[in-house]
């Protein structure tokens, strides 16, 4: 079957608490035309500034992935990007009524559910991929990400936390819309009680709660409803990685393995990979540098019904 570009078939609207601000924030996904890519709008600001998703406009921090044009920011884009990547959505216009995306339940499940309820629309242009031609590795301390050639996207993740519910967890998965929905979308973000309390005391994470994260103390879990799977932790890390790999708006063909890494290293790794000569190629034969030509919001990008 030909691999066509996709957008959402109609508007998708979600609302929830932003973990940093504690405010209720609305996000809307609107259909966008072919080749529009993924364009965000700060719909709460005067002039409704738009920020195109592209590597230059993304910064990875320890706690979140941030989209920024240097003036306007949108925090916590990773779970939405993960859902878009996992479902294979190429073109979408995202209206955000705040400086961050709502955390929802801490996973990508609500995005997936609402997007699939509205449906996807095929568009008359082939999808473009980033092919990995040679092995490439990025390290930072104990963190490591490796990229290897492959004919499809496969992710592996390895984490280790000295906690009785986590210890060593590993996952390896071929990513398709089906495996994404079944194996990753439900996995919630997690944090440790002491660290969360410290950050709350400093006025950070105003919206953090047991409704939008797994919270661990020294021995176990504070959430009364338990884990969704025993390895929900590594599954969430893979969900995050998939989101961070989508900062180009293009899917990789390759085998990507991450160990002990987070958003900061994920984003650095993608940028280093794209900047390295002769390691990647776009599937339509264009050099990866062509990505930079797509980095501006194309004129005429409007939500379309
Ligand atoms: Zn996450």
UniProtKB/TrEMBL annotation:
GO cellular component terms, A-Z: membrane
Recorded superkingdom: Bacteria
Residues that span the membrane, as ranges: none
Pfam name, any one: LpxC
The UniProt record lists the keyword Magnesium: no
EC identifiers of the protein: 3.5.1.108
Reaction(s) catalysed (UniProt annotation): a UDP-3-O-[(3R)-3-hydroxyacyl]-N-acetyl-alpha-D-glucosamine + H2O = a UDP-3-O-[(3R)-3-hydroxyacyl]-alpha-D-glucosamine + acetate
UniProt-recorded name of the protein: UDP-3-O-acyl-N-acetylglucosamine deacetylase
């Amino acid at each position: 079957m030909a691999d066509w570009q996709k957008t959402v078939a109609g508007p998708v609207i979600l609302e929830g608490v932003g973990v940093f601000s504690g405010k209720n924030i609305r996000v809307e996904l609107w259909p966008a035309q072919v080749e529009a890519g993924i364009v965000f709008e700060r719909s709460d600001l005067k002039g409704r500034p738009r920020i195109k998703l592209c590597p230059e406009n993304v910064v990875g921090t320890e706690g979140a992935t941030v989209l920024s044009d240097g003036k306007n920011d949108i925090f916590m884009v990773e779970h939405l990007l993960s859902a878009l990547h996992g479902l294979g959505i190429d073109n979408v216009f995202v209206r955000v009524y705040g400086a961050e995306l709502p955390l929802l339940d801490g996973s990508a499940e609500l995005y997936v559910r609402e997007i699939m309820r509205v449906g996807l629309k095929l568009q008359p242009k082939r999808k473009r991929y980033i092919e990995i031609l040679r092995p490439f590795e990025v390290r930072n301390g104990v963190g490591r990400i490796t990229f290897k050639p492959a004919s499809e996207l496969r992710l592996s993740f390895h984490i280790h936390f000295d906690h009785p519910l986590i210890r060593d967890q590993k996952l390896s998965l071929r990513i398709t819309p089906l495996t994404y929905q079944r194996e990753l979308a439900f996995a919630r973000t997690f944090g440790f009680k002491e660290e969360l309390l410290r950050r709350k005391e400093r006025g950070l994470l105003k919206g953090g709660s047991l409704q939008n994260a797994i919270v661990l103390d020294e021995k176990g879990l504070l959430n009364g409803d338990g884990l969704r799977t025993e390895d929900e932790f590594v599954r969430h890390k893979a969900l995050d990685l998939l989101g961070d790999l989508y900062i180009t708006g293009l899917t990789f063909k390759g085998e990507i393995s991450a160990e002990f890494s987070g958003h900061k290293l994920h984003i650095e790794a993608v940028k280093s990979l794209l900047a390295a000569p002769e390691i990647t190629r776009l599937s339509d034969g264009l050099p990866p540098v062509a990505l930079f030509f797509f980095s501006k919001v194309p004129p005429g990008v409007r939500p379309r019904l």
